[in-house]
Amino acid sequence: MEIFEVSVHVNDLIEELLPRVNPDARFDRDLAEVQIAVGGFVPRAGTWGILERCAREPRESWPSLVEDWLRDLSDSLALAITELDLMGDVRELCESFQDLLRVRVVPKLTEAEREGMVVIAVGRYFDAVVVIDLPHRPKPLSRDLAALMGMNRRLGSAVTNTHDRLADVRLHEMPLTMTESVRVVSQPGSRYVSALLTEVHRFLPDAGGAGALLALPSHSTMLLYPIGSAPVSEVLPVFFQVARDMHAASDDSCTPKAYWWRPGKGLIELDPAVPPSTLAAPSNAPARRHRRRPLRRRRSS
Asked: Measured between alpha carbons, how far is 95 from 91 in angstroms, rounded to an integer?
């Protein structure tokens, strides 16, 4: 049966079953959407998913499939509405919802932790979690709430919002050893600097093929050390310790671990107990040093 014929029969079933499953909802046949008024807005759920499912199943199973779908949809909307209520003024949240979306990069979540959340993998060690930027702490966006607010196809706004608010991120050097310093990317009070993990190259224009040491001790700070001519074995233990100390001192910590970043390649987690014999500038590349400038004594007036 062609999908158009399936849609005709499924739409008939939706119109028949919806008043019984959820009397407050309505079905817009022209737009193929189930709509439920909540406060001052009307969340919509398209029917394409149930159409595809019915097309794969025998026609006699369609009534139960459609009814189960409508019940699941109503349950998800009820949970999402409750979630909105707990966050504060529903009407105010609805009006500014898209502007409140952000992205936080966090250490890789377990399958249980990912359940029900809007999450995108960022390599082997991290995940990007879409969150709602509430005053006290970011709240992960649930799939139910994303569907309720019609955000499933507009989550790019979370990335845009995050990067817009990181436009004035600070970049400075901090002493690491007697001769070396570490590059610090930070925005005090921010919860989203970790999202710049996908844009590390912006802060390492001088990095060669050997790349850099990287750490994300908190969500407001990223540490970078371009690998140059200095022996990494001398720098790495101190780099590890600085990352651990910052992680322990932060009230919005990310991870105490350190990683090896290279242009165009995935991160590699570093082990402080294993000598980093492979972390070195290529022999055929010019050595890049990242040394501290000597302190100059001020002249007395």
From this structure: 6
